[in-house]
Design a protein that fits this description.
By secondary structure, this protein is mainly alpha-helical. The chain folds into 2 domains: 65 residues, no CATH class; 246 residues, no CATH class. It has 14 helices and no strands. The N and C termini lie far apart (74 Å).
Length: 346
């Protein structure tokens, strides 16, 4: 199976195409110029080569991109809508910003998962070393001194073993849960994992804000392509991937069917925070709905990034604290008898 373009590659392509179209360069020539600049072998170079071949056959840009099989359906729909409305240049710029934001957000999410996973592995390794090397070494020393550790005054060193085993068991369970969650997420069981995460306040808030960010960015892009509001909202819903947000959007669609605008429907259903809802109403009344939507997209992207950082900021000290407490208590348990021996000798 061919590797599709990632968000960064799509963003670079769309941004470059937008600039060339803005400069008056024809689509076929623009793709040819981009191919000359992209000399590294990879999905982007393959996409440009195949798209150029299709464009030389007289097809539209959306058809050429679709035949490469390397572009996501959302990007293809947007390019097709831009061509039909005569606003392809604007759409390409919007798609470039959208996928650049998606790349930044995905990197934030990867760091939110990667760092705790690395900390879990580190804690497990340290605990295994404690149980296999450090504690047995001290146990042998005290056995020689007392004859039988179980019947000596230093038998509470066994508490260190119990504490380490308990901590190791907890860490292994957490690591297994994380691996299972990632496996289910990547195997099509994403709704199940999201349902569990939505019940956790920090993770649930992050998922809802991410859903709102994806919706707002998609809606702004669809409106820039010339789509009517009800179609734009219905199509943008497909990008949300968060059930609580989808439920609110379904209610907004009912308002649109009754003749209300998207700004009024969003305000009535409290789709956005009150201050953002009023921004949207003001933008619609002043005829600047699209710029306001893009401003909201930027604000939501910043909020998602900040919330992701806060989530990592909670998990990081928590895991570090577990590591420090476990190692500290274990070492204290084995060092106290040694201090007692030294003081009796002295």
């Amino acid at each position: 199976m061919r590797k599709k373009l990632d968000a960064l590659g799509i963003s670079a392509f769309c941004e470059s195409m937008g600039m060339m179209l803005q400069a008056g360069i024809q689509t076929e020539e623009a793709v040819a110029l981009l191919r000359q600049e992209s000399r590294r072998p990879g999905p982007l170079e393959t996409a440009l080569r195949e798209a150029q071949k299709e464009l030389e056959g007289g097809v539209s840009l959306s058809t050429a991109l679709e035949k490469t099989g390397l572009f996501p359906e959302y990007a293809l729909r947007m390019v097709r809508a831009g061509e039909s409305s005569g606003r392809l240049e604007d759409v390409m710029f919007r798609l470039g910003k959208y996928y650049a934001g998606q790349k930044v957000l995905s990197e934030k999410l990867k760091s939110a998962v990667t760092y705790p996973a690395a900390m879990l592995v580190l804690i497990i390794v340290v605990l295994v070393l404690m149980l296999c090397m450090v504690l047995p070494a001290f146990t042998q020393v005290y056995d020689r001194l007392t004859g039988s550790l179980a019947h000596s005054a230093y038998r509470y060193i066994q508490w260190a073993y119990g504490f380490c085993w308990a901590a190791l068991g907890v860490m292994i369970v957490l690591a297994a849960a994380l691996l299972l969650g990632l496996a289910l997420w990547n195997s099509g069981k994403r709704p199940l994992i999201e349902g569990l995460l939505l019940k956790l306040p920090p993770a649930g808030s992050l998922l809802r804000e991410m859903g709102m960010y994806r919706f707002t960015a998609a809606l702004a892009t669809f409106l820039a392509s010339g789509e009517v509001q009800d179609v734009a909202v219905a199509e943008s819903m497909k990008m949300v991937d968060c059930r609580p947000v989808e439920e609110k959007l379904e209610k907004c669609l009912k308002h649109l069917e009754e003749g209300h605008s998207i700004a009024q429907a969003a305000f009535d259903e409290q789709l956005f925070e009150p201050v953002y809802g009023r921004m949207l109403l003001a933008g619609e009344r002043s005829g600047s709905l699209e710029p306001v939507l893009w401003r909201l997209t930027e604000l939501l992207e910043e909020q998602c990034g900040a919330r992701t950082d806060r989530l990592v900021g909670i998990v990081d000290p928590l895991l570090s604290g577990v590591l420090l407490v476990t190692v500290g208590v274990s070492l204290l348990s084995v060092m106290l008898p040694l201090l007692g021996i030294m003081s009796s000798i002295g």
